Amino acid sequence: LPNLVSLDLSRNQIGSFSTILIRNLNNLQYLNLSSNRMKDVEEFTEGSSCLKILDLSFNHVMRIGKSAFKNLKSLTELHLQGNWLSYIAPEALKYQTNLQVLQLNRNYFDDLPLKVFRSVPQLLLVTPALQRVTFR
Q1: Which domain range does residue 87 map to?
Q2: Cα end-to-end span (Å), the chain
Q3: Domain total of the chain
Q4: How far is residue 98's CA from residue 117's CA, in Å, rounded to a whole number?
Q5: Strand partners, 102
Q6: Between β-strands 101-103 and 124-126, what pairing exists: parallel, antiparallel or unpaired?
């Protein structure tokens, strides 16, 4: 399995996911955990450094902490739509300088500080209110 590039675990009723399970998948570029029952997003380990696309859409995630994605420096797409999100820590995307697509629609944000997007200059944000906004 060390050469695995894509892993689809969608629609499996997964309640929690330990990133230890993928720590030795050093070539993993696409991880789909959509349409499960995950409530928390734990910090992704350093072994996830090649991950480019992470799909956590349509789960039950309420909050994204400041270190959840800190080791995902190659991430270009992050799909978080259809969760119960109401909070993203201002530092949550600090290390995602390659992030181009962030899908946040169908969540429960009251407000979303622009500080969240400071380190992602190439970002294309997709939401119902702001269909296509590029932050530069």
Answers
A1: 1-136
A2: 39
A3: 1
A4: 12
A5: 78, 125
A6: parallel
The gap from C-alpha 84 to its chain's centroid, in whole angstroms, comes to 14
Query: Which two three-digit tokens encode residue 24?
Result: 């030795």
Q: What is the pTM of this model?
A: 0.89
Burial class of residue 114, CB neighbours in 10 A (0-12, 13-18, 19+)? exposed
What is the Cα–Cα distance from 107 to 45, expressed in whole angstroms? 26
75-114 pLDDT, tens per residue? 999 999 999 998 999 899 999 999 999 999 888 887 777 7
Task: CATH number of the domain at 59, please.
Answer: 3.80.10.10
The Cα 40–Cα 68 span in angstroms is 10
CA distance 83 to 133: 21
Strand partners, 53: 30, 77
Q: Are strands 133-134 and 124-126 parallel, antiparallel or unpaired?
A: antiparallel
